Structures are given as C-alpha cells and as structure tokens.
Amino acid sequence: MSAVDSVRDRLDALPDVGLVVGFIASIWAVMLVLAIAVGGANWANLAVGFIGSVTVLIGGYAILALALNLQWGYTGLFNIGIAGFMAVGAYTTAVLTAPTDPAAGAVPGLGLPLWVGLIGGMAMAAIIGGLAALPALRLKADYLAIVTVAFSEIIRLVVNWDGLAEFSLFGAPVGTGGATGISFKSANDVAAGLVNGVGQPLVTAADGIGVSGPNLANLTYGVILLLVVAASYWVLTRITNSPFGRVLKAIREDETVTQSLGKDTRRFKIKTFMIGCALMGLAGVLFRGQAGYISPQQFRPTITFYVFAALIIGGSGSNTGSIIGAATFSGLLFYLPARLGENISLGGTRAPGNIIDAVGGLASLDPLPLLAYIISNVSTLRFVLIGVVLIYIIQNQPEGLLGHRNEPATSVSLDRPQSRSGGEADE
Amino acid sequence: MGIAEFARDGRVVLGDRPGAAVVAAVSGFLLLDLVAKLAGTTVFFLGTRLLGGSLTVGSLLSMVVDGLLVGLAVGLAGIGLSMTYSILDFANFAHGDTVTAGAFLGWVAAYITAGLGTGAPISELFMLNSGRQLSTVSTFLPVLLGLVVAGVGSIGVVLLVDRLTYRPMREADNISLLIASIGVALAMRYLIAFVFGTQTSGVASGGLRVTVLSTVSVTDNEITLLVVSLLLMLGVHLLLQRTKLGKAMRAMADNEDLARVTGIPTERVIRLTWILGGSLAGIGGYLLVLESGTISFNFGWILLLLIFAAVIVGGIGSIYGAMAGGVLIGLVDSLALIWLPSGLSRASAFLVLIVVLLLRPSGIFGGVSTA
Known about the structure:
The complex is a heterodimer. Chain A is mainly α. Chain A has helices at 3-12, 16-39, 43-74, 82-97, 114-136, 141-160, 187-196, 200-208, 213-241, 243-253, 255-260, 265-288, 302-314, 319-343, 355-363, 368-376, 378-396; strands at residues 167-169, 172-174, 182-183, 293-294. Helix content of chain A is 68%, strand content 2%. Chain B has a single domain (56-359), classed as ABC transporter involved in vitamin B12 uptake, BtuC (Orthogonal Bundle), CATH 1.10.3470. The interface between A and B is large, with 47 and 50 residues.
C-alpha cells in the first residue's frame, strides 16, 4: 500500500465537510507552529499574517479548482485557458467599477458599485466562454487544450495592448490600462470596512497582542473567500446531483451513448463550460484583484497549470477533492516552502551568489554554502517539487487523493465492491 | 477552367465551408492592401481609409528576413514536437523547456571555451555573466562547439526525462501523458532557474553585418542560423528517405500495434524519436539565442505556443509540415506588424493556430504524414 493510499483511507473515513474543515484547520495549525517557532515576541502578528495569506490562496485556488472540476472532472472538457477567462472576469469588473475621476495617470472606469462589477464580470466571462466553446468543443481533448491556451494568450495580449489602454465606450472614457494595469474598487476594502466597523472591538483586542489591523483584514478576506468557496461548492453539488449533472457524468463516461439517448450533448457541454468560466471570472476578481489592482502579468498561462496541479492532487471528478487539492497545493506546496526558506538561517553562513560558489564549498568538504544556496532559492525549487508531485501522482495515483469518489452516472453503483484491507487490488 | 466552373466551385466553397471562405476573403483583402501599401496609394471609401497606406519594399523585405529566421529555428524545434505528437501520441508541453535546456547547455559550453584564458573567473563564465558577446565570426570554434553541445546535451536531457517519466506510463492515455509533460515542464524550467537564476543574460551579438540587398542587411549570426537550420533540415530529410528508420517511424505513427507485429522494435524507434527531436530542439534553441542575443530561463516556455502553432499549421506528424509551418508562423508573426500594432502581432500567430485547428485540424498541407 502506497503512502497516498493510507492517507486516502484515513481521509475516506471522514464526512466531506469535516474533512475539508479539518484539513484547512491543520494547515492553519502548521502556520501557527511556524509563526511561534520563528516569530519571537511578534509571533501573534506573524501567525495572523501567515494564516491570512494562506487562507486567501486556498480560497482562490479552491474556487478555480471547483470550476475546472466542473468542466474537466464532470464533462471531460480539457480547458487550459483558465488564465484567460479569469482575465475577462477581472477586467470587466475593473472597467465597470474603476472610478470615473481617477488619480493622475490612472485609467477611468464606469464607477459602478462592486457587486454590479462582480455580476458583470461573471456574465462576461460566461459569454466569452460560450463563444469560445461554440466552435472549439468539436475538437479532441488535446486540441481543445491548445486552442484554449492560445485563446487565453490572445486575451492577455489584447488587454496588454496599449491601443485599449484608454478608449471611449458609448461616450464614457474607459480602458484596460495596457501593460501598467488598472485600479478599481477593491474587494479587500470591503473586508477592511467590515473589520474596522463591526469588528472594531476585535481590532482593539488583537492590537493588544500585537496583531496589526491590515493582517486581521487580510485574514477576514480569506475567510470571506472560504465562504464563497462554500457557496460555490453548494451550487456545484446541487448542479452535479441534478438531472443536468447526471447527463454531464454520462457525457464523461460515453458521449456517443448519451447522444443516442437523445441528449443534445453539445448544448450541455456549452452550458457547463459557461458556468465554469463564470466561476473562473469571479476568481479572477476576488483572487487576483483582491487589492483592487490588476495587470496583464497576473494572467500568464502559468496560473492555469497551478490550478491543474491543485485539481489533479485533489482528484478530478470530486468537488471535495478539488478543495482538498487546492489546500494541499497552495498551503503545503506553494506557500509553506517559501516561508520556510525565508525563516531558516544557517547560523551565519551567507548564501553564495551563484551555484558555482555554492558547489565549490563541497570541494573543501563544506556543505554549508550549498545548503544556504538551496535555502535561499527555495521559492524557485518549490516549483520543481510541484512538477515532481504532479508526475508522481499521474504515474502512481492518477485519480488523486479523492478522485476515486466520483459518482457514476447510474443511480446504483456498477463497480465491484472494493476490498478495504489486504488482498490484491483488482486494477 | 471556365469562368462558370470557377464560379460554381466558389459557390460550393461558400456553401459547404463558410469558414474557409471567410479566411480566403480576409487573406485576399490583406494581399490587396499589401499591394496598395507597397504602391503607396490609399483607397478611401465613404470617408474612411479602406486600403493602403505606405510601406517600403525595403522594410517589407527586412520583415520577411526576420520572420524567415525565427521561423526556421521554430520549425527546427517543431520537428521534435511533431514527432512525439505522432509517435508517442501526446502533446508534449515540456518541449519548450527542452529548447531552453539545450540552449543553456550549448551556451555555457561556448561561453566557457571562449572565455578560457581571458582571465574571467569560471563562475562568471558559467553564469553567462562576463558581459562578453559571442559571434560566429569572432569566436567561430566556441560557437561551433556550443552548437554540438546543445544538440548532444539535450539528447541526454530528453532520454533521462523519458526514462523517468514517460517510459513507466507508455500505455497511459494521451491526457495523462500531457499532464505528466506539464509536470516535467515545471520541474525542468525551475531547475534551470535554480542553476542559472532568473535574469536575462546577453550572450551574443552580430560580429559582422552583410548587406544583402540595398536596404536589407543580416549579421553573421543570422547567416549561421540560416545555414545550420537548412543543413539540418536537409539531413533530416535524407535520414528519413534513405534509411529504414524513416519507414519504421511512419509505421509507428500510423499504427503502433501493427508496427510491433511486423517486427519493428517500437521501444528503439521511440528512443530514436526522442534523440532526433531532442537534439533538434536544443539546436533550435541555441540558434535562436545566437540570433536574438539574449537567454533566460523561460524563453523556451514562452516560445512553446509558437512551436505548437507551427506544428499544427503544418499538420501534426508531418516533419516537412513542421518545417514549413515554422517558416509560415515566423512570417505571420513578423509580417503581422504591417497591419497590427506591435503588441498584437504575436496574437495573430495564435489566431492562425486557432483558425487552422478549427477549420482544418489536419494542417494546411492536408495531413500527409511524412514522418
């Protein structure tokens, strides 16, 4: 039995909500321990800072992984244009909500309230997703992948183009800001307003133990994101358990059979694609545009592949797995190594400036320079780790941590009963 | 062909394949516009500029040269992608990082040999950091050595990656392999960043400028790129036409089970595919750096989508298609500047990719598999 199997069996024993809450709580506990270990007198503030940042990351990636799971896990649509749909949502919201009289040098927008912007962003991401899906869904999975990634790059290049940096929309001056980006109504300010308004006593209390206001606001924002995740999870579970969801699972199992049963699979696929894209658009605003500023740099294809890593770790096909995968990826693989690298010191050995000097130490049997170099480059090496984990999982555990729990399209299970302990697994 | 027949064909195209008709109309319009621009005339319609503008023959030619050079290197790198796509049946997202790895290996070799004896510390040379700019004319032997090392080194890289990653999952479906290649791409790219850092280093600049036509001039490094990539393409052509390997590869791409039954050692053909594709990718990357002058840890990754475009436009599985597709995409990327602002010219290459995939997924040459 592999290590992943034993982890999985233990995870299986828990109910879904308990599983997710327990998992995120244990990541919080890890962050708390780290803060206490390195923070000294300032540990409380550091802990809130760590936990806040990790919660925002988990929330953002969980929304994205859930959206991708709907498209790929349930319907088999291999969309690697996530960054592009995030950009569509974020930029639409930005243009709708940016102030009409911006600071000098910034781009004006339509000045609408944030909630209008969010709805507009989701709607636009869904519409663009639908338009992209219309011709592209005829393609094989790997061609669809290439079309969507090219599409997302086109979107990024278009918003990056200075020709759209400032233009006139029905007489109102608006724009994307080109390469310099655009500032708009910050979702973070809502959290900050909440903390400084209703939560004033909390701020005072937190201040007493040295926790700064902005850190507390960031943590609040992370919790709000988790609430959005919970809402998305609820909606998606409703969708996937509905008759609509059964058709989606049937499409994933065998599209031809589904068609021959009289289902217009194209229409189902396009709808699914649009719902997923709307969620990606929402994540584009709430996650990338948290601080009320976005630029084309934030929507490079790399983020798409991080979401894929998160979903594959969690197990595509399972909504609970998507959230667990997002938490594992962003908390343990993405955030934790970087903080560890920043806070470990080797008692005065300074990291060499390049790898030759670092390896050079080995000649005189001194591993410390190399170790110091590795620690100072942990934020680079964590991506190597993510790549290796991805390869390991796809080779040994293609269904991820929880993907084996994806529900079959039938109402009764057609699988052979699984032997829980010992014996040969019949694969 | 009579006019009536031509018109009927036209109607058939219009009715059956509206997408193709739109593409034909757009290309026709752009061609007309190009002629008008070269003639220096402008056609107005209802007060707005419809056609034309101004463009000198000289600037058109230098755009063509630029596009051709980039396109040749992209085509060279694309051969490997096309081969793995048809023979191993998956889209290899790590191919761009193979290009980067080969380029780094080659340039480190060239840089160190060129710098030996100049007193520059070895760590600065290894990090491509001494500020020295190599060119084919001034440092011929190191550049040549680098070329060889780029080819040989990237063979080692791809064989290692294949052994560790793809070989244990030969029977897996193409999406699993694609995802594994995404993992390989991440790991490779950041290992390179770990060793060489994330900065962009200037390593080459033209040592000699040759005026070809009155207004078009090329550097010695650009001539090297042209000559080497043409020679290598010719070599690949001969290899495939004159050896049994080419036939075996075609058989593998067509039907792997049948090939195995016929006695073709599939595992050996796969290894040769990696060797050929990997070395061409590494050399392509090395030559691109020679032409552009700068190298950074993610340049191959950024180039990957352009290589995909070349391979798909040329038809997946076709080696000649990859070469032609590379040149075509290079030309589109560069000539788009005539009509589009510079920020959007790359988008036009991706648009061509999408249009080809949607209208003619087998590639513009009709999917003749020549591998």
